[in-house]
Amino acid sequence: MTEEFIQVADITDIEINQSQSVSIEEVDILICNTDSGFFAVEDKCSHADIPLCGGQIVGNYITCPVHGAVFDLTDGSVQSPPAFEDLITFEIKIEGTSISVKKPF
Q1: How many other C-beta atoms are found inside a 10 Å radius of the C-beta of residue 89?
Q2: According to a count of CB atoms within 10 Å of the terminal CB, is the N or C end of the chain lower?
Q3: Hey, which CATH number is domain 5-102, 3.30.460.10, 2.102.10.10, 3.90.870.40, 2.40.110.10?
C-alpha cells in the first residue's frame, strides 16, 4: 500500500515564522515555516482545543495565542504549560515549491 500525500500549499505562500491552516478530511493541520524548514502539526492546542494558527513561532516552537502553551514543532512535544498533552504531527513532503501532507489516519 502506498502512502498518500495530499498537496495543501506552496512554500511561497507561507513566510518565515508564519503558518497556514489547512483541512484534510476534516482534520485541521497547521503548516509552519521555521528557520529549520517546514513542519505540520494539528491546528488545535491540546490545552483548550483552540486553533494554534496565529501563534508566535520562534525557532522551532509555537506559542498558543490564547493561553501561552508552547509546543516543539519538530515532534509536537509540550514545552510549557498550561498544556500537558503533545500535538499530533504529520509527515510532509516538499517537491519543487509544493507542500504535501501525508493523509491523516
Answers
A1: 18
A2: N
A3: 2.102.10.10
